[in-house]
From TrEMBL:
Keywords, ordered alphabetically: Isomerase
SUPFAM superfamilies hit by this protein: Xylose isomerase-like (SSF51658)
PANTHER family assigned: HYDROXYPYRUVATE ISOMERASE, INOSOSE DEHYDRATASE
InterPro entries (alphabetical): IolE/XylAMocC-like, Xyl_isomerase-like_sf, Xyl_isomerase-like_TIM-brl
Pfam families linked: AP_endonuc_2 (PF01261)
Keyword Lipid metabolism: no
Organism field: Paenibacillus albus
Sequence ranges assigned to domain Xylose isomerase-like TIM barrel in this UniProt record: 25-251
Identification of the protein by name: Sugar phosphate isomerase/epimerase
Gene Ontology MF terms: isomerase activity
Length: 255
C-alpha cells in the first residue's frame, strides 16, 4: 500500500477557475498539490487539458459530474458525453456530487435513487471507468433505522458504486469519520477532506474539529488512494486557503 496522493477539488477555486481555468490549474501545481479533481471544464477541449496535466505532472483521477435528475430521460445521453470527455482526459472515476432527496425521505425514495445510481454505475463501468457518489450531511438521515448513505451502498453493488466520502460532511451528519472509513474499507478510493469550525462554516484542513488526522492514520490500510481538499468558505481568499490546507499534509509526513 502507498500513501494517498494529495489532491485539490477545483470547486474550491471556483472564483478563480471561472476567470482563468488554465492559469488556476498552473497555480495549483505550483502550490505543491499532486492531483486535481474537476468540477467542470469551462469549454476546454479534453486533449488540450490532458496536455496541460502532462506538462505540469499533475494527476487527475476524477471529476464531479452531476446527473440530470430533473430530466431523467436525458441522464444516459448526458452521462455518455461526460464519459467520452473523461476517457480522453484519462480519468479513472466519475463521481456524482449530489442527489435530490425529500426533506423526510422514505425507503421508496432511497430505492428510487439507488436505481438511478446503479444504472449510471453500469453505464460508467461498461465504458471502463469507475463510478462513485459524494455525500453531504443529509444522506445520514435515518430511513427505517439506517442512514440513507448506508442503504444506498447496500442496495447498489460495489461493482457499480464506490463511495467518495466527504469526511467533513460525515462529521456534520453526526457520524465518526474513522468509523466510516474502516466500515467501507476497499470501497473508498477517493476521500474528501473538508474541515468545519463553528457551526456549518468550513475552514482549512486541520484548522477545524473534524477528525481528519484519524482518517489519515487509517487511509493506507482502508485503501484510500486520493485525499482531496475541498473548501467552500474563506476568510481571505480561496488560493490562500488552498495553500494553508497543504500544511496539514506536510505536518503529517506527506508531500
Amino acid at each position: 500500500m502507498a500513501k494517498p496522493v494529495v489532491a485539490l477539488q477545483l470547486y474550491t477555486l471556483r472564483d478563480q477557475t471561472e476567470k482563468d481555468f488554465i492559469g488556476t490549474i498552473r497555480k495549483v501545481a505550483e502550490m505543491g498539490y499532486q492531483a486535481v479533481e474537476f468540477a467542470g471544464y469551462f469549454n476546454t477541449p479534453a486533449d488540450e487539458l490532458k496536455a496541460l496535466l502532462d506538462e505540469l505532472g499533475l494527476q487527475a483521477p476524477s471529476a464531479h459530474v452531476g446527473l440530470s435528475f430533473g430530466e431523467p430521460e436525458n441522464i444516459e445521453a448526458d452521462l455518455a458525453k461526460q464519459i467520452e470527455y473523461a476517457k480522453v482526459l484519462g480519468l479513472q472515476y466519475i463521481i456524482t456530487p449530489w442527489a435530490p432527496l425529500p426533506e423526510n425521505p422514505t425507503i421508496d425514495d432511497v430505492t428510487r435513487l439507488a436505481g438511478i445510481l446503479e444504472a449510471a454505475g453500469k453505464q460508467v463501468k461498461e465504458a471502463g471507468l469507475i463510478y462513485g457518489y459524494h455525500n453531504h450531511d443529509f444522506e445520514f438521515k435515518l430511513v427505517d433505522g439506517k442512514p440513507v448513505i448506508d442503504l444506498l451502498l447496500e442496495k447498489v453493488s460495489p461493482d457499480y458504486l464506490q463511495a467518495e466520502f466527504d469526511f467533513g460532511w460525515v462529521h456534520m451528519g453526526g457520524q465518526n469519520p474513522v468509523d466510516y472509513a474502516t466500515r467501507y474499507a476497499g470501497r473508498v478510493p477517493l476521500a474528501h477532506f473538508k474541515d468545519f469550525g463553528d457551526g456549518r462554516s468550513d475552514t482549512e484542513v486541520g484548522k477545524g474539529i473534524v477528525d481528519l488526522k484519524g482518517v489519515l492514520d487509517v487511509a493506507e490500510q482502508v485503501g484510500i488512494q486520493y485525499v482531496i481538499v475541498e473548501q467552500e468558505q474563506f476568510e481571505n481568499s480561496s488560493l490562500e486557503s488552498a495553500k494553508l490546507s497543504l500544511e496539514f499534509f506536510r505536518e503529517n509526513g506527506y508531500l
